[in-house]
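Hi U.,

Before I forget, here's the chain from the pilot set. I'm dumping it here mostly so it's searchable later in email.
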Amino acid sequence: MNDFAAERIVKSYTMHLCAPPAEVFPLLCPVREYEWIEPWSCDMVFSIGGMAENNAVFTTDFETQGGAEIWVVCRYEKDRAIEFIRVTPGLKVNRLDISLAAANNATRSIWTNTFTGLSEAGNQWIRNLTEEAFELEKSAVEKMLNHYLKTGAMLKMADLNIETRYYGQDSRH
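Structure:
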């Protein structure tokens, strides 16, 4: 029997976006994120339509997120919600649940991350995740989304005036 005990943490952030859900939702797609997230990069593994859809699978490899991740879209409710299960093999699982609600021709969007360690290194990654670093990363996403929704152009990381390391994590384990 394994003596490992997984640790879990749940963090949420509410975004106020300057467009209705019908304009925001299509941007929450791994293919469309190239338009508004710097430095986004992914490889689509499976999608019937080539975009985000229920049961689509894609991969990313961001060192600051723990390395190579496998993403599965496990919930897809057009203009209302999208949910991803992100697995960093041997490190952690990150369930990302994004809900959208109309708010006076704008959107109130709640982003909830549920992190579960898969190893002692994953547990340590979770322990190192500060509220400040989580909010900094989510506020950067909110700024990038709002900028794109207003201008149709990508907001460059240099213009955000924040660290580019997501969650403030040291990539060494």
